[in-house]
Specification:
By secondary structure, this protein is mainly alpha-helical. The protein has 9 helices and no strands. The chain is globular, with a radius of gyration of 15 Å.
Length: 155
């Protein structure tokens, strides 16, 4: 339910529900971190990707969630400092709001932001020769990385 809260995408959305049905046995059964396995993280990652893909494919929710991000721009324009903030800040805010701000260790936010910026750097390394789909693919990847991050998993 946390991913649904963070994205606004219903758990009944077809792709989300289909993925959930495929991975539900891989999900953790309790909150014990010591019993957290790689299979658990892979299931959560798959769900994060499908939720983010659904969010980015929904024009109204996408515009509401990321009002200042220019999805139609080439990566060099879309991912300027202000563009990065326009995609990363709402994701970090969703993590904090969904996970109760008082419970989250805010010292994790800078490292999460740094990791997301590094992901953007890596995915947009093609510069001005990036395919047209790079901006959207990078936005989906950044979303999935944030939603599947340890910040969300631990809290």
């Amino acid at each position: 339910a946390s991913l649904a809260q963070m994205t606004g995408i219903a758990t009944t959305q077809v792709a989300v529900n289909t993925t959930y049905q495929k991975v539900k046995q891989q999900l953790p059964v309790d909150e014990n971190l010591e019993g957290f396995l790689p299979a658990h993280h892979m299931a959560i990652t798959q769900l994060a990707v499908v939720y983010c893909n659904a969010l980015m494919s929904h024009p109204v929710l996408r515009a509401d969630t990321f009002p200042d991000f220019i999805f139609s721009a080439e990566p060099a324009v879309a991912f300027t400092a202000s563009g990065r903030a326009a995609i990363i800040d709402p994701l970090l805010s969703a993590l904090v709001v969904s996970l109760h701000a008082q419970d989250i260790n805010t010292s994790q936010t800078p490292s999460t932001r740094e990791s997301l910026n590094s992901l953007i750097d890596e995915m947009t390394r093609c510069g001005t020769s990036c395919p047209a789909s790079t901006t959207m693919n990078t936005a989906i990847a950044v979303c999935a990385a944030a939603l599947g991050s340890a910040t969300m998993l631990v809290h």
